[in-house]
Amino acid sequence: MSERIYTQHHELAALILHHCPEEGVFQTAVPSLLLIHHREMTDKAYQVYKPCFCCIASGAKDIFLANEHLSYGPSNYLIASMNLPVVGQVVQASQAEPYLSFKLEFSQTQILEVLNETDLTQPTRETARRALFVGQTEPTLLDAVIRLTKLLDQPKDISFLAPLFVKEILYKLLQGGFGSMLAQIALEGSSSYRIREVIEQITRHYEQPLRVDELAEMASMSVSSFHRNFKEVTAMSPLQFQKQVRLQEARRILLSESADAADVAFRVGYESASQFSREYARMFGAPPRADIKQLKQKYGNILNVNA
Fold first, then answer.
1. TM segments (predicted)?
2. Could you read off the pLDDT tens digit of each residue along the chain, which spans 307 residues?
3. The domain that contains 71 carries what CATH number?
4. 243 in a structural domain
5. How far apart, in Å, are the Cα atoms of 227 and each of 74, 221, 230?
6. What is the pTM of this model?
7. Same domain, 35 and 150
8. Please, are residues 63 and 76 in contact by the beta-carbon 8 Å criterion?
9. In what order do the strands lie in the sheet with 84-92?
10. Does residue 183 fall inside a structural domain?
């Protein structure tokens, strides 16, 4: 790690600690910007990532997408270009050197605006690629990240400057090694664009029965082509994707409401409470009642979310 990047990480870490002095996830005054602080390793946290850019100032984290495992720390950044059910775990954190992270969510529209407003070369429409990837952090990218974080100390300037600084970050990402992959989600007609629309449909209506032929038609693909492209993007089949989203939502409901597991099973789309219980235990390591009891004993009524 170069001396410049080391200095930048030290500055970013100080800014995050300033605005997020306590452990947890802090929603900032800048829309879609979150700051995260943990002083010890965490248990695995299950969540659906929205499209986002994550940058670590201190510590390290593992992300699991289906059977794939990605690790990243201060020398890397992580991008999720679509809604994805992932498992995250902070694997390096201490009182002396806590895990400190910057997370910026973005939309397909914002990516398209940057492409249309700059002289970036419009990429060709490639075949679908994985929607979760780790890149190498560059000093100019960290400069933009620090500028946006510093803006939190100038609340009167946020409404005008924050959109400009966010565009700068996205512009730097589109210039980077994974820029073409990121741009694909905004290029109407590309395989990634069409799969993204299907993913949004599934995550919005996860409780509804899954008809692969209808999803393939929505993506303007044959069923076999749709399956191939969907798995390339998400590392799982449409049915596996829906199952993960359903089970994560069921766990959230069970933690936040006094609800019966069988009722929750039907709410998230299961027709069989016993099948729900089996699949829940397979994913989270214990049946619903035992899992929720253990979580509430450890964390109270708030699910441990590692953004």
1. none
2. 688 998 999 999 999 999 999 999 999 999 999 999 999 999 999 999 999 999 999 999 999 999 999 999 999 999 999 999 999 999 999 999 999 999 999 999 999 999 999 887 666 666 678 999 999 999 999 999 999 999 999 999 999 999 999 999 999 999 988 888 899 998 888 899 999 999 999 999 999 999 999 999 999 999 999 999 999 999 999 999 999 999 999 999 998 888 899 999 999 999 999 999 999 999 999 999 999 999 888 766 444 444 5
3. 2.60.120.10
4. no
5. 35, 9, 5
6. 0.90
7. yes
8. no
9. 45-49, 84-92, 60-65, 68-72
10. no
- DSSP codes of every residue in 214-264: HHHHHTTS-HHHHHHHHHHHHSS-HHHHHHHHHHHHHHHHHHHS---HHHH
226 domain-assigned: no
Token readout for 64 is 């699991």
DSSP state of 151: G
Residue 280: which domain range? 254-299
